[in-house]
Amino acid sequence: MAAVVDAKGVIAVDDPPITAVLGNPEAVFGVHSVIGTSSNTAGAMTTGEWLVGEDGRIAYGALCVFIDTAIGSPAVAHRPRNAWAVTTDLSITFCGAPVVDGSDLRSSSRTIFRDERSAVSDGEIVTFGGDVVAKAVERVVFTLDQSISNAQTAPEAIDRGSGNVITLLGGRCRSDASVLDVGRLCLNPAGSLHGGVAAFMSERAATATVDTCTDGLTPTLLQMSYIRPGRADSRLVFRCLPLHVGRNSAVVRVESRTSDDRLCTVASVSYHRR
């Protein structure tokens, strides 16, 4: 691995190893491997019933924890010592439906930009047979925020029961507003809501809204902006604003807010008829 010296004379590894922490959110969604370096990261996620919504269709948001962890990890690897990497933006293009047969989905990702304050990585998710399921780009910023604590713990043994992941995570999904009680299965290593769980809930809330107006539309693009963290043991409400719902396409804006109306995330979800 190459090394570089920055303006302050600090030696840094130019292609640092991945140090992804696979916690409870990853266990819930079947993510079991994220390895490599910032220039070449590989991940794996087992498919299962948690990828299927209550309507029997693929729940594309169930890919978001895998995407956030696996495709974001190359950018996170560049964080300075004693600093945290915080996701600010995540964009996912859903290309095709995964096969839910117990086989693995694979990820390939790499850093495409970095400086002293931030980094950007991109990558793709493919089936075992090589078909592209999703493409994503993620941006993180580095912070020395002392209010962030390391809540890293070993993942629990997850009993998915009926396979209703929303209920397992502490959520309820409705067309008017969806709610998530941020419990231990939702937390990232910093002790706040995992960005992939926030994206999952945003997609599920938006899809519930679209499905009340029309049927047969599939999410094709999810864009997330992370404003502030969802704190452990808090309640977030995901409210949807349909910007357009037509026969062949739809666009929905989703905001998550705390019980005191503080904005946490903003999502835009686009739909098309495949």
TrEMBL record:
Superkingdom per UniProt: Bacteria
The keyword Ribosomal protein is annotated on this UniProt entry: no
Q: Which residues form the Thioesterase domain?
A: 191-264
Q: Which Gene3D superfamilies match?
A: Hotdog Thioesterase (3.10.129.10)
Q: Which InterPro entries match?
A: HotDog_dom_sf, PAAI_dom, Thioestr_dom
**MF-aspect GO terms:** acyl-CoA hydrolase activity
Task: Report whether Secreted shows up as a keyword of the record.
Answer: no
CDD domains recorded = PaaI_thioesterase (cd03443)
What is the name of this protein?
Thioesterase domain-containing protein
Q: Which organism is it from?
A: Gordonia insulae
